[in-house]
């Protein structure tokens, strides 16, 4: 039997299976609450010195006291870390016993050191900086003790040379009493334990005073948007500025700005309120917003499983929540309720439990939500974060080795900065020189490291700490857990209700990792360090960036942070937050925050629903309803720009893939109504080209309707059918005109079926959507296209006439039968006719260039089997055509993978007029 949990497999059973999984988690969480919450502090003594004043009834205090009025020290700064494992097993390891066995530096060298960077493809780098930002709200063991450091012998051949590596010990708890002698060591949290934004606001009045402006409830911020910084270190002055790098600079600046935006809004609504009143409310709102973003955005990105997605949603809103942002799972939750109420409940049968358990508070929480519930509930154990919680959040492998900076929209690295050069004072300089929006974009499109073995960034394994010297953080991570009495991996699992592993192979079957694990731990699974075991777990629930051991700790603490806090339960109400403040929390997402303070990111964030997943081309279900320009921006910025080929890296143009022009592909071409190619669609013809944004400027008074009266938002793709050396030079264009709230209209045009032979000048000839069938059509495409159309060489433009760009339908449409794209005279002779790569020519054309005059005729398209007669008809039509407008580039032409394989231009057949 597998040692791993089984709830993920319930997902296969459909919606009710997902809910069976969710209830399993809820019930397990209840068991954990009963068995795994341990308080090791002396709160009555601490309470004696605290008076909760009138302000603290409706505001968070600086030091976290008075959240629980009846037990005011609970969760405040300098309270001890609690435990999630029985304290009797938490005696810290010492040099006299197992602290140095196996050698933690050896663990770091063999099992942690990163060879090649292993990315976590489902997340972006914002997710990494975000969790460190959160950790800095939650926990801090304070500065390490200077005396009597731990000396770790350096293994033979170590990169640090010979001798010993010295690591300072965790600062001891000065509040220990004589009565506690012989009991396991305790450590104090130098932050408040609450989810109260203390990384921004500090955990003491002294720090808090430094960050406040004392005007209109705002925090201090410089005129250029940067935070005031410390004179010597250059690091910003903020609640917590330890372990600093540019990712933290970005987040602290962003949420300081968000605080000030909230304060401005409140000042407007409540102009006569004091600075203190405004500040207190803005802090409540900003902290709750960060907690909500973490709960319903970050976490579902990191553990992206249908069960946990719903569980996290339920934590904030409850599955039965009502209101515009709260009703996502209502229908499913009703289905679950009905099932649970039925005598033959599918879910209860799967779970093997009876109805009495189904009514437990765990399930009520899932259905009704935690946030806003009537009273805080600490399950009888004072709220603290725990040593085990700290242990599972040692997620340093998330860090990349460098920050790659891109221009907004681009996928070409503009600047690559080694992570160490983004630290401390350099972080703020970098934020200013590269600009926050470029960095956000760059973080949005790059991945963090994955939480696996041998993926620990080497810069953190040789990290310079001011006044301390160089440390190996991987060694320190391993040492800390041992020092603080966090049980080793297998015992840790037993203690938190998980099956222990029985062999190394349970963790991984990857041969090198397996051999290294066995060697370092002397074939003894009980010696595996918790951090190593967690990173080694290869069996993970689908979508999970970390494994189930960390998750078990996570489900307790993530819920407790909310359910024990008065400001997320009883006092999560308008009288405390203000109505406007509550609405701010409820209606704001991370994408909104990013956009509010970086309007330049609007197009990069189009369609991005979760800011922590890699930003890319997203086509959400409501895409078609978007305004024309938003659709154009999305495909341009997130499709074309993001996949632009680097200079000198244009792909080789292959010959036309006649075999690829099989009926099914062609059917897609005429049937699929989409702007982005269906998965697996390949351009068998015209595989390579360039694309730009384009607008159609109409000739006033032209006789045609709809888009012929103007189309400001479009894409124009210019390509050749295939390798000109093999197929002759066959230029073609495809134009997509976007329409507000309706599907785009598309048309393609060619010079002729066989092209223009050895003339490589793209603008030598006119193109049209109708070309005369040719007897000597070298490719046989006419025959192929006849599989799907009676008039295979004709594309209709009737639909262009039926709708205006604002989405309005035209009552009496008038469409031409044939249109001609006539290259502007100044372009006709600009480029060489000799053999060369045409894309080089087109890439020189910039925004504002007019490419084509568009001519149109309404003459009927007649053909004859006598080619010369057909040609005469064609000439007659051409001479009757009048100019109806011009196509002008609104961006440069660029070559991109999206242009070559992603964008889709539907063909309108003769039959579909
Ligand atoms: C440039 C990035 C980072 C640097 C320089 C850094 C540095 C450090 C340092 C120096 C410590 C204290 C080591 C000690 O106990 O002596 C630490 C602890 C820790 N770090 Fe990081 N870190 C970084 C990123 C992260 C990230 C992305 C996470 C993700 C969750 C993280 C989570 C933690 C945790 C949970 C601790 C333990 C805190 C405690 O013992 O109270 N760190 N880090």
TrEMBL record:
InterPro entries per record: A_dioxygenase, Haem_peroxidase_animal, Haem_peroxidase_sf, Haem_peroxidase_sf_animal, Oxylipin_biosynth_metab
Q: List the GO biological process terms.
A: defense response; fatty acid biosynthetic process; oxylipin biosynthetic process; response to oxidative stress
Q: From what superkingdom does this record's organism come?
A: Bacteria
Task: Please provide, alphabetically and separated by semicolons, the GO molecular function terms listed in this UniProt record.
Answer: heme binding; metal ion binding; oxidoreductase activity, acting on single donors with incorporation of molecular oxygen, incorporation of two atoms of oxygen; peroxidase activity; prostaglandin-endoperoxide synthase activity
Q: Which cofactor does it need?
A: Ca(2+)
Please provide the record's keywords in A-Z order: Dioxygenase, Fatty acid biosynthesis, Fatty acid metabolism, Heme, Iron, Lipid biosynthesis, Lipid metabolism, Metal-binding, Oxidoreductase, Oxylipin biosynthesis, Peroxidase, Plant defense
Q: What is this protein called?
A: Peroxidase
Question: What organism is the protein native to?
Answer: Aquipseudomonas guryensis
Taxonomic classification: Bacteria, Pseudomonadati, Pseudomonadota, Gammaproteobacteria, Pseudomonadales
